[in-house]
Amino acid sequence: MKISIVGTGYVGLVTGTCFAETGINVTCVDIDENKIKNLKQAIIPIYEPGLETLVKKNLEKQRISFTTSLKESIDQTDVVFIAVGTPPGEDGSADLSHVLNVAREIGKNMTHHLVVVTKSTVPIGTSVKVKAAIRDELEKRGAQIPFDVASNPEFLKEGNAIEDFLKPDRIVVGVENEKAQTIMSRLYKPFVLNNHPILFMDIPSAELTKYAANAMLATKISFINDIANLCELVGADINMVRKGIGTDSRIGNKFIYAGAGYGGSCFPKDVKAIIKTAEKNNYPLRLLQAVEAINDDQKKVLVNKVKNHFKDDLKGKTFAIWGLAFKPNTDDMREAPSRVIIRHLLDAGAKVHAYDPVATHEAQSIFGDEITYGKDPYDVLIEADALLLVTEWPEFRMPNFKVMEKLMKNKVIFDGRNIYDPQEINENGFDYYGIGRKSIRE
Ligand code: UDX
Fold first, then answer.
1. CA of 61 to the centre of ligand 1 (A)
2. How crowded is residue 180: how many other Cβ atoms within 10 Å of its Cβ?
3. What pLDDT does residue 442 have?
């Protein structure tokens, strides 16, 4: 079997590499010549644990190749995945121009039957547009080549993408006929061996599944954050409440950790997009509107605590930030709570020293020299008025309080992910503020 993947972004590159792992022949296409040049040498544009090694291995085994020519790539291919970006347009709905351009290119260049699979997260109804674009180009050529469209949303998490792809909770595929279903089930056979189900359904259901899954997860997070804020007002502890509700198997214990809000490339974009789709159908999704509004506010909770502690006078004060990426194990800062927190601190006249194990270069492209960047966690603590823990990287979990005490001007920790034990922090002489739990002041 031979497949091609158009778009070597996060989803495209992981998808291509993992399919190559199963022994099939994969061609990855991108219009970015520089990216393709680098990928040919296994230089990958993103930070994702394990990806570089797998790209290198499959390049050596000649199971994966990279090209800028879509025409070349679909020669003798059975399946083409469209995995290009769908950035939010000005009104929040997904911009489909890249997806539809690829569909047109496929229509212009295809010479035999193809299954054209949408892998990018696209609004409901996109497969119909993809089909129309391909058909239109075929008609212009006067060509009568059969093809099928399919929708195969991706559920991988950044930082765990390889594992998620190789051992999926489930694979969702929307198809229109048996032929496409047979081809797709053959392709995914290696991944469903150990009871990982493949769910075939109609295309609109597959398209909506992706949005509904992310919207549900975002809802869990905004729900727990809302309850966390209530905990503080009534003297409860969100960690206790979390355990108390999470042991109910109907609720489950995952994705109910209170924090500084959700970020990343998926949740914020997808919640916006599903709200938009519903609006277009004259059905406002009131619950998800609230989920979004709660999350926007939650990104400010930590900085509000800082302002309260310092009685609204942050001018000239120095704050150390631990963690810039929207979550651990990625350098991605899209919609990261750290961006909102840092912007508020700067606007209030404070200085910011930030450290992240891998996202420094990303932060530099956002904040430039408005903030300074440390080489290690302790570096940024020098003369700091407080520490704000924003991303729960493992290396922040067991800090050396004796060293911290010597470096910092004020002994205050704002724990935006509840990773510390307030009692332990307090025994070490620090003031402690968490999310949804009692703060402890000396
Ligand atoms: C998510 C989905 O999990 C994935 O299935 C989908 O394909 C893309 O979107 P990702 O964006 O990589 O993946 O991140 P994820 O690990 O899900 O975390 C999202 C955000 O939620 C992070 O900012 C994280 O800090 C936050 N989060 C997560 C919480 O605040 N509390 C939790 O309990 C869990």
1. 34
2. 22
3. 59
Angle between the N-to-C axes of helices 126-141 and 203-234, in degrees from 0 to 180, rounded to the nearest 10: 150
Scan for tokens 């594992």, then name that residue. Answer: 163
Q: Calculate how far, in angstroms, residue 202's C-alpha sits from the geometric centre of ligand 1.
A: 27
Closest residue by Cα to atom 15, ligand 1, is 157
Residue ranges for the chain with pLDDT beneath 70: 442
**Quick one: 299-433 is in which CATH superfamily?**
NAD(P)-binding Rossmann-like Domain (3.40.50.720)
Atom of ligand 1 nearest to the CA of 417: 30
User: Looking at residue 90, what is its pLDDT?
Assistant: 79
DSSP-assigned states of every residue in 329-374: T----TT-HHHHHHHHHHHTT-EEEEE-SS-HHHHHHHHGGGSEE-
* CATH classification number, 211-297, choose in 3.40.50.720, 3.40.109.10, 1.10.1040.10, 1.20.1440.120: 1.10.1040.10
Q: What ipTM was reported for this prediction?
A: 0.93
Are 35 and 8 contacting, i.e. CB atoms less than 8 angstroms apart? yes
Provide long-range contacts, Cβ within 8 A and 24+ apart, for 179-183.
Answer: 179/148, 180/115, 180/148, 180/149, 180/150, 183/78, 183/79, 183/115, 183/148
**Amino acid (one-letter) located at 123:** P
For residue 395, give the DSSP letter: G
Residue 31 burial (C-beta neighbours within 10 Å; 0-12, 13-18, 19+): middle
Q: Answer whether 2-201 and 299-433 agree in fold.
A: yes
Ligand 1-lining residues (CB < 6 angstroms): 154-158, 214, 217, 221, 255-257, 259, 262-264, 266-267, 326-327
Q: Give, rounded to a whole angstrom, the gap between the first and last alpha carbons of the chain.
A: 66
The 10 Å Cβ neighbour count of residue 132 is 14
Active site members: 266
Question: Distance, CA 74 to ligand 1 centroid (Å)?
Answer: 34
**pTM (2 decimals)?**
0.93
CATH of region 2-201, choose from 3.30.70.270, 3.40.50.10320, 3.40.50.720, 2.40.70.10: 3.40.50.720
